[in-house]
Amino acid sequence: MLNFAVGPVQMEEEIRSLGAEEIPYFRTPEFSKLMLENERLMKRLMKAGEDARAVFLTGSGTSAMEAAVMNLFTGADRLLIVNGGSFGARFVKICEIHQIPYTEISLEAGKALTKSHLEPFAGQGYTGFLVNADETSTGVLYDMELISRFCRENGLWLVVDAISSFLTDDFKMEEWGVDAAFTGSQKALALPPGIAAMVLNARAAARAEAMEVKSLYLNLKDYLKNGERGQTPFTPAVSVLIQLNRRLKGIEERGLLEEQARIRRQAEDFREKIAGLPFEIVSESLSNAVTPLHPTGTDKDGNPVSAHRIFEILKDEYDIFVCPNGGALAESVFRVGHMGNLTPEDNDRLILAWKDMHKRGLL
Ligand SMILES: *Cc1c(COP(=O)(O)O)cnc(C)c1O
Hints:
Layout: E1 2-3, H1 13-19, H2 29-45, E2 53-58, H3 61-72, E3 79-83, H4 86-97, E4 102-106, H5 115-118, E5 128-132, E6 134-135, E7 140-141, H6 144-154, E8 157-161, E9 180-184, E10 195-200, H7 202-210, H8 220-227, H9 238-254, H10 256-273, E11 279-281, E12 290-295, H11 307-318, E13 320-321, E14 323-324, E15 334-337, H12 344-359
Parallel strand pairs: 1-13, 3-4, 3-5, 5-8, 8-9
Antiparallel strand pairs: 2-10, 6-7, 9-10, 11-12, 12-15, 14-15
Helix pairs in contact: 1-9, 2-9, 3-4, 10-12
The structure holds pyridoxal-5'-phosphate.
Pyridoxal-5'-phosphate binds at residues 7, 60-62, 87, 132, 134, 136, 161, 163-164, 184.
């Protein structure tokens, strides 16, 4: 199997074999030590301040999206949400469920966020800003410098879903004044799904501690309190946290820059190699995490090639996963991920499969 999905992604052999081991009991000084190290390393890789905190939720990335909204905002807030695809839409849904007033900045699929999108909302009494740094559904990386400046100038709390941009594109939590940011274990961390890691700056941690939250499981107060001694309020995905520790230490040893460069080279190699194939890249502002492609060709019967069909054929006949899109883009766009344990030779295998599909009149 070869996996170019955007999560879960291919894991290193060392990480996979750790996952095969017995799981230790976790209310121990040894596990606490590992968790405190995880917190220290997550903060450093997010480029957060010394006084920031990291907490680990056992849940997918969405658990962190919902926890951030519930623990930092109330019905008295007014939020701006960048909605450029299915993950922006998820923030909208979360605010709707929790009855937090919001305004959407809706972007067409593949479009970048510009100054003119933000200008109308300056000085309008908004209190918070929610954005997916990389809107993974369309592979659009938003301009975080622009967003950061806007939030500073207007006194907005800034919450960033960095689920697919953590490690793939630069992230400067403290410099950008990001109050809360989070990622999920199955994206560029290249671990099994199950852990969402969230970093809160000092004022966000203080706000979460003071918040009345109507949830047992997603009450960050308890995670912050237990985290002081390297523990979690409930049984966490222990094995994923052990794998996380190995992975974070590996990145620390090689250097964050090298990890980012490896993913960037994988993306650039892919984008060079698809020249001449019947695809169009549909994002104006590409992240290194993923390349969104629109098939431009016709099949042997003269019908436009379906993006979803390409996903199915690659899966069933070539043992290769790419990532299909849902909703309105299902037939017109699919994505190729660059995160995880992939090499330029893996890109070659995918290109060869497409050349073969072309020969068969399927592309
Ligand atoms: C993958 C992803 C999510 C959702 O993560 P789950 O782990 O599926 O809950 C949210 N936001 C972004 C930007 C993502 O890439």
